[in-house]
């Protein structure tokens, strides 16, 4: 197939007539609960561009929610997954195994933080990985409680809905939820009432106090935390908070689980966001960026913890599908060969520079934050810290109309978030930022 030109091109309004016709069919055929951010139907995609059925080319600042970090249909992903498709598509690893699964586990064991002995298990989705991390931690500790944080997001299955903080849209009407889940404060510097400088210390003290007083540390199987809260609004916990929580877990025999499903695989400028403060998690969950767009997820961690679940206790029909494993090996090859951690850092420099200049000019910008290619703008009512979801929605809409795919996030729905593919060209990145700036001007 011909290379997709790496340029924005608008030939109809957004969405165009063919997308609108498909949207009518979608509404008639697809459950209403499955919403869409931007109803342009995609025909092909690659690099930093998605092309719709009307022939419009949009700049991609979303990567399908941090998934296509290596770009859509990346060469090594296509090559390896196609070869695997032709060889065999499925045997079920639990019935008759295959090498690709083992190779992905070896890569995960090598790439994740810490040089201790590790094991991995593969699954289909992020939520499934988080559920399995909890199963493994419970089997290892013989305890039941799980501690999670304000603004946390861990998925949409029953257990992971319980782990997720935000009610609307994830939980509303879908209970009852799994028991033995306890939520404690997250060090959110921008919104910490006594000021960002006190945030790490005070939030850690409050979290630990709540765990100790309300749950009992000896009852806690796992502490599950995102090193940067993704859906919660790209909240980077104040420096010092994560090490304090990890140390508390270590002292109390609690399994420390880093949910790196959104932050992992080069997204933040390092292979894993935990590395930023030298955290070595006991278990780490990965998905999204792992396989260049194919569904794959993993739990990786200390051998003695991972091996605590009895034989046959972990798995699933499709977990570690051979085509998805081949795609993951292609994605990892791309990340190594093209130095995608370095590319993510460069994207971060360019975006933060431009967005901080925008912040100087527009007082709806409360904060610009993030690392690498995981960057966000939190919008407020001017002169206050009151969340401004209306401005956020208007800005996203304005960007969409100009052919730039952006996403929103945040507990208060007031965060514009940017997750470009790490292979995006600098010209497209700059053009996307120009569109964002002009959207602010017209707000
Ligand atoms: C997306 C996400 C999940 C859930 O992954 P799915 O593949 O959608 O089930 C869990 N944790 C984090 C941090 C995520 O960003």
UniProtKB/TrEMBL annotation:
Gene Ontology biological process terms, A to Z: gamma-aminobutyric acid metabolic process
Cofactor(s) listed in the protein's UniProt record: pyridoxal 5'-phosphate
Homology family: Belongs to the class-III pyridoxal-phosphate-dependent aminotransferase family.
InterPro entries: 4NH2But_aminotransferase_bac, Aminotrans_3, Aminotrans_3_PPA_site, Class-III_PLP-dep_AT, PyrdxlP-dep_Trfase, PyrdxlP-dep_Trfase_major, PyrdxlP-dep_Trfase_small
Record keywords, A-Z: Aminotransferase, Pyridoxal phosphate, Transferase
SUPFAM superfamilies the record matches: PLP-dependent transferases
UniProt EC number: 2.6.1.19, 2.6.1.22
Pfam family, one: Aminotran_3
GO MF entry, a single one: 4-aminobutyrate:2-oxoglutarate transaminase activity
Catalytic activity: 4-aminobutanoate + 2-oxoglutarate = succinate semialdehyde + L-glutamate; (S)-3-amino-2-methylpropanoate + 2-oxoglutarate = 2-methyl-3-oxopropanoate + L-glutamate
UniProt KW Manganese keyword: no
Protein name per UniProt: 4-aminobutyrate aminotransferase
Pathway involvement of the protein, from the record: Amino-acid degradation; 4-aminobutanoate degradation
Family annotation (PROSITE patterns): AA_TRANSFER_CLASS_3
């Amino acid at each position: 197939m011909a290379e997709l030109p790496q340029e924005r091109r608008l030939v109809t309004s957004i969405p165009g007539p063919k997308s609108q016709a498909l949207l009518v069919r979608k509404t008639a055929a697809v459950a209403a609960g499955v919403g869409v951010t931007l109803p342009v139907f995609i025909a092909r995609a690659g690099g930093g561009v998605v092309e719709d059925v009307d022939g419009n080319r949009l700049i991609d600042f979303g990567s399908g929610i941090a998934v296509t970090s290596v770009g859509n249909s990346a060469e090594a992903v296509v090559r390896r997954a196609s070869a695997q498709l032709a060889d065999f598509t499925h045997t079920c690893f639990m019935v008759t195994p295959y090498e690709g699964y083992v190779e992905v586990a070896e890569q995960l064991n090598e790439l994740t933080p810490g040089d201790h002995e590790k094991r991995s298990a593969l699954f289909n989705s992020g939520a499934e990985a988080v559920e399995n991390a909890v199963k493994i931690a419970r089997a290892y500790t013989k305890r039941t409680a799980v501690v999670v944080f304000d603004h946390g997001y861990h998925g949409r299955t029953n257990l992971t809905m319980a782990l997720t903080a935000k009610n609307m849209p994830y939980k509303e009407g879908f209970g009852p939820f799994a028991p033995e889940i306890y939520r404690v404060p997250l060090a959110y510097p921008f919104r910490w009432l006594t000021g960002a400088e006190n945030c790490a210390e005070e939030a850690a003290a409050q979290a630990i106090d709540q765990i100790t007083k309300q749950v009992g540390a000896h009852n806690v199987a796992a502490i599950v935390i995102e090193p940067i809260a993704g859906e919660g609004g790209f909240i980077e916990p104040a420096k010092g908070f994560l090490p304090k929580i990890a140390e508390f877990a270590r002292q109390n025999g609690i399994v420390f689980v880093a949910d790196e499903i959104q932050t992992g695989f080069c997204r933040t400028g390092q292979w894993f966001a935990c590395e930023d403060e030298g955290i070595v998690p006991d278990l780490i969950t990965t998905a999204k960026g792992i396989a260049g767009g194919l569904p794959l997820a993993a739990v990786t961690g200390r051998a003695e913890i991972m091996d605590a679940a009895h034989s046959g206790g972990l798995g699933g029909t499709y977990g570690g599908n051979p085509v998805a494993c081949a795609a993951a090996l292609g994605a990892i090859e791309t990340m190594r060969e093209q130095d995608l951690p370095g590319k993510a850092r460069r994207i971060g420099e360019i975006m933060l520079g431009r967005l901080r200049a925008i912040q100087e000019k527009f007082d709806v910008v409360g904060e610009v934050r993030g690392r690498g290619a995981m960057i966000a703008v939190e919008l407020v009512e001017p002169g206050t810290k009151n969340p401004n979801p209306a401005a956020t929605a208007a800005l996203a809409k304005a960007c969409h109309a100009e052919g730039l795919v952006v996403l929103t996030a945040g507990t208060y729905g007031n965060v514009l978030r940017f997750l470009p593919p790490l292979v995006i060209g600098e010209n497209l990145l700059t053009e996307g930022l120009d569109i964002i700036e002009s959207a602010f001007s017209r707000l």
